[in-house]
## 1
Amino acid sequence: MIDLSNANNNLWKEVCGEAGDIRNCFTCGTCVLGCPASGAEESPLLIRSLVRKVVLGLEDDLLEDATPWMCITCNRCEESCPMNVHPFEVIMGIRKWQISKDDSYTPGAIVEIYKSGHTQALGKAKGLRGSVGVEEVPPTIVKFPELLEKFRAMLKETEIVKKYDYLFAGVK
Amino acid sequence: MKYGLFLGCNVPAIRPDVERAIRLTMPKLGVELVDLEGATCCPAFGTFPSSDEHAYLAVSAWNLSIAEEKGVDVMAECGSCYSVLSEATHKLSEHEEERKKVNELLNKVGKNFEGKVKVRHTVDVLYNEVGTKKISSTITKSLEGMNAVIQYPCHTLFPSKVLGYDDPGRPHMLGDLVEALGAKVQSYSRELRCCGGAGGFSARAHLDAVKYTKKKLDAMKEETNADLMVVACITCLLYLDKTQQELTKDGNEYSIPVFDYNQLLALCMGFDPKEVAGISFIPRDKIFEKLRDLVVVS
């Protein structure tokens, strides 16, 4: 039996501010059927169950559940949900909610983007790029240090960088 | 016809041969490419879109504003870039408040986003702007006699209310583009499934993701006699290529060479295979040899 004595009845609003009212979900499971990550053996991503946790307000359960991070972002669930629950937006909402409660969920890649503008080390690809005949340094932000300064200045004003500034402090 | 080429991260860093193929083939078809100086990560779904909505939209708007300044629409090959930027454009045009907030961030660093830019995918431009006829009449070598299987990029199909250019339930454009090069497209039962490579699935549950993709590869092997696989997204390319190598190490044989569409197009235009399709795990030599021995059609 689910213990609802500590349930947070406003959890769905906290998680789905953008996505709207997810209480319309009637647990049909269409979102799970199309999901590539739903077949994972040890910890399958079961969007329907996540939506239930949010609707029922099971905060502790939701905070411990790392399966939203297995989402492949293919958006099949978003396409096929018959009740406009916006399951993909719910996944993204849960991720953001988890980060707001526990910084260990913060994706390291945002520090990479702050550092170089990209998730991949374009600076290390010079040889590879030269070998196929494209400019060794591509005309993205890696080529324009003055733009990278501006880009970082913009990011410094965002909530996530302000809140977790210590993650970005070591970036030179 | 002019587009701002949005490179993203994986193409320029890991598969610059795809970038080379795009840069060589598009102008031959009358598509002028403009560089988007100072562009960054789109940003990928697993980064700012998962952690801070305003930061996500600000980074996307940073990128889109570069195209806006130049008066061009954006064209991306990477499915994630296409999807992230399309969603951002949609969100910023639907919600004026959000656009104001984002512009407050942008204005401080001398940028602004008005929302005039459209986001296009390479397949969209090739099929809907260039057209298959023009492609067939421009190539000098044909893939006639070869069989191809297709991987349609999920990120260009869903959610169809917000993005996309093809029929999300029965996509056909990439297949038609491949047939315009002379190859025969063979369908298979798991054709419309995801490749399995994007997002956190393969990173967090690698063996499960490989198992998922193996089913797709098995369907290709059992139900078709594919000489090659054609994709139109850098993640599909990297993942279907790498996973075949991984499965082969375990004693199975998976050896269907994978190409991004523009790579195949470049080969059919006679460009140097080393430059336009030189980087892969599964060897592409058989395809190169077949094309090399072909008499040039005039």
## 2
Amino acid sequence: MVELGQIALILSFMMATYSTVVGFAGGMLNGRDLAASARWGFYSICPLLILATASLIYAFVTNDFSVKYVAENSNIAMPKVYAWVAFYSGNAGSLLYIAVAFSLMAGIAIRVLNSKLPYTSPYALGVMSMVLLFFLAVILFLANPLERHQIVLEDGQGMNPLLIHFGMFIHPPFQMLGLISVALPFSIAIGALLAGRGGRDEWVDQGRLWGMVSWLLLTTGLLLGAWWAYTILGWGGYWAWDPVENSALMPWLAMTAFVHSIMVQKRRGMFRMWNMVLIIVAFAMAQMGMFINRGGPVPSVHSFAESTMGWIFLAVMAITLFISLVIFTFRFDTLKSRSGLDSIISRESAFLAQNVLFLLIAFITLWGTIFPIFSEAIDDTTMTIGQPFFNKVNGPLMLLLVFLMGIGPVLPWRKAGWGSINRMLRLPLIVFFLVLLLSLISGIREYWVLLAFAICSVSLTTVFQELIRGSRSRHSRGESWGIAFFSLIGANRPRYGGYVVHLSIIMLAIGITASSFYDVQKDVVMKPGDSEVLGKYTFKYLEVSEKAYPDRVEETAKFEVWMGDKNIGYMHPYRAFYPEFQIAATRGAIHSTILEDFYLVPSEFKEDGQAVFRVLINPLVSWMWAAGPVLILGTLISLSPKNRTQRKRLRLPNVSVDQNPLGISE
Amino acid sequence: MKNVSYQNIRLSLINSLLMLGLFFNTSCMAANSDFVSQEEDRINQINSVIMCPVCPGESIDQSQNEIASNMRSIVTDLVRQGKTEKEIKDYFVGRYGPVILLEPSTDGISIFVWIVPPIALSFAMIAVALAVVVMRKRQKHTSLNMSHDVAGEIISDEEKEKYFAVINRISNE
């Protein structure tokens, strides 16, 4: 079975080589048959890789420890359902995961692309194929998960115990999928450039589609990671500005900028050069993310085992960046914008400011992440740059972005006259000061919190304003309020889907602000029978029970908790020690309400029966997790295609090919 | 007109009520700060800027490690002895080197960490200003040119025929 997988890998590699070469040839020679052949070659890769994946999972499930990767990442004691996690938890396996997932996504993208952009798609296929080829080459020659060992062990090493959690079924797959999916809009853009059609804006629709798909995957990966860290790591936080987290954040920032500025190109034919450079940079950042993750130079809790692999990714990133910019320079002249800026106060300039801000935050994140490398190289000073730096610098900038998010959508295109500004922004401005006043009255004194809440309310107001005005105008034409609301959204899905996404961002912003500034933390020493109080919570330590498993010892504490006078039941935080890994993993018990989270974690169980617990009250954290589904809903609304009846099928005239019937000179 | 402003007032009321609800909650939160003693708050604050030496990138506040909890008790002792935050940080730097602090200091090469972001921000603002100026100029230029070109253009009859031939062909498909 494993050998079958190996053959599948070799075949995939050959196929990828074929589609790269033939794809580019088809583009350059304008050969429809060549392009078709390349396409079908590419489609065949996905089933092959699924076969390879199946053989690896089979090896896990049957405890085949002669396969080196299986021995390193699982053991007999591991519940076999975790074979899915073990599959991508190690370096080699994750490469295979990326390859199979990308071959599927790119296959779908190529299918769609070919019907919409027949001249661009051979080139785009060539680029996507090349990306896949790189991964397959690394798998075959450097890190093959199906490689067999000479020595067959009785039992495997087992998986890192921190990975045994439901969140691990979904966070890493989504995150890795997100990073590699940036290759899709990138390939389309480069493909259009190579085909000489970069300035025609025809690629913008597909670029936006796959850009948003990629953005959705990246966001989901990040939110799942934060949620996992919060619920599993027992520290009460959700984002640590860890180098790997940062390297996932940077492409997200670039893609958020991209999905916005691509709208300006669609609407007004502006930002053509900017969008090209932006997507090239976004892809470079995604590659950098993969580099830092795989034996990068900066230590992180996320890193796979240290290996030389990382430097290969870095080299490929540099080469990709270089070649892309060379292509860009050669096709520079096809990218002149159709129009310029009519006014400094307009939606276009708001988009420009927003894009620059996103890239600035990405740059600062990059700077803070790699500066320790510089300082060590230059000065021999070792240092760590962590939360304090990033929160202080990026926090205010992100708040500025939330503000732009609020006023941008209500600024008119081209030019905002004072009349329209007055009409649109009058109410938000009133609400800004009203909310500021209310916050001060209710006792808030930290000026960042005051500012944050006020700005969030501005954004909230503009979204509501738009929804209500739109619904009202439909209602005045005879529809009931309910129908008016839904048909409003249905009639202009990109716009209103975007508003729903903005709502989720506001929820995130409020949750982050409240939990960052108002979280309460206390360490207590208790023995069974003790009761402690924190805020309106009373918690009584009842008992601790110990349970031994083949690979770990678990100590579970049982608490009875009251919120005010109301008994809210039992909570069971536990601490597990894995002697083989010398790791202790804690699982906090969380009682979540819409207002706050009550969070109990055991820090230490002492010999004398006493135990140290950390207790936390985190306000408004559930708003952050609730924001996730809202964000996904908004993105799906925004992406959903128009009804079939609204779309007319365009057919090219069935006449002899006359590319230039009107005799227009280009 | 009257109708519109009525709606607007209703809107702002709804919005403020929403925010009001939020802020009553926040006022409870603000009161939360009384639950934990100031001393404990200080200890947590200091813990969050000291790195655990064996766990990459985690503060001793975050880490579950034994070494981290030992260091936390050292911090607690030092705070109770009345040491200032700087003295405590210096103590740890003396033992582990400057790498132990999560926030880079402002002396030596580390000053660059802090200087570069504001410089980058200024560059960004200048870049945006320049871009706006260039794009404004281009717009003025194009609109001038366009008005000039459109003014005198007349389509010849043969070209008209060509256009209509193509249109008819397509629309008859």
